[in-house]
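Hey Z.,

So I finally got round to the adenosine monophosphate thing we talked about over coffee. Here's the setup:
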Amino acid sequence: MDSCIFCNIAAGLSPARILYQDAQVIAFHDIRPLAPVHLLVAPRQHIESLNQAGPQDEALLGHMLLVARQLAQQEGIAQSGYRLVINTGSDGGQTIFHLHLHILGGKRIAYPLRDL
Ligand code: AMP
Ligand code: ZN
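And the result:
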């Protein structure tokens, strides 16, 4: 997908502060951090959202979680805690339509969420 920013980051065509990458996923700092630690884990493959993931993506989705756990450890927030978020679709607040997992930590993350 030429016009997809996360595909371009995965292909090395757009800049990002990359923390980790392997054959399946890429992880980088969110450009507009909402917490002291705000990282994104995205598959290299263009999957629009969780709604487009299927049984064939089961291993990939599990891998994204384990990479997130590894990064939380590496960035020093595993013990203090963190939140993983996958915004999906309009009500979910998704703005980039390439599946990604947010890792938020380094402060207490507000919950329950406020109404918009
Ligand atoms: P979502 O609202 O779940 O679709 O999240 C999209 C996230 O991507 C937001 O937190 C943005 O700040 C972040 N973002 C958008 N463009 C970039 C970029 N070029 N590099 C890193 N993060 C980005
Ligand atoms: Zn994409």
